[in-house]
Structures are given as structure tokens and as C-alpha cells.
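Thread amino acids onto this structure.
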């Protein structure tokens, strides 16, 4: 597994807004707050786009996937 250095990373704007976006979308990622035990994942990109209109569509999708992965990882860690 290759470790990436900071100068190889892309999507710096996504990294800059990640924590704020995580707080904003946490309720959408939680199945217990969704409908019939299902998270409202399809709403994450919508909410991200509304809050951060300067992000490109690619950045919105990268952020949405990263938010879901982070929520799952943090939930598993307790």
C-alpha cells in the first residue's frame, strides 16, 4: 500500500469544508433518523450543494462519499 504525501492530494476545498459538512449531514447519514431504518443518503449531495455552492459537481460527489465513509468509520469506533 502506497502512502500519499500531502503534495499528491487533490480536492483541497473538500478537505477545508469536511468537518462543517460532516456536522451538517450527520442526521442524513444516520439510519435511525431516516425513513424505515434507512439513511437519507440521496439528500447528502443536495445539502452539500446548497451549503457550499462554489464546489464543483465532482467535489460535491467526492465529499458525499467521504462523509458516508467517515460516518461509518466513526460509528464503528464508537
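Threaded sequence (78 positions):
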Amino acid at each position: 500500500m502506497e502512502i500519499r504525501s500531502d503534495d499528491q492530494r487533490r480536492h483541497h476545498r473538500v478537505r477545508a469544508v469536511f468537518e462543517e459538512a460532516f456536522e451538517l449531514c450527520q442526521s442524513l447519514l444516520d439510519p435511525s433518523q431516516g425513513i424505515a431504518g434507512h439513511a437519507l443518503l440521496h439528500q447528502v449531495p443536495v445539502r452539500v450543494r446548497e451549503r457550499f455552492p462554489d464546489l464543483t459537481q465532482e467535489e460535491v460527489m467526492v465529499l458525499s462519499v467521504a462523509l458516508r465513509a467517515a460516518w461509518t468509520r466513526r460509528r464503528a469506533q464508537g
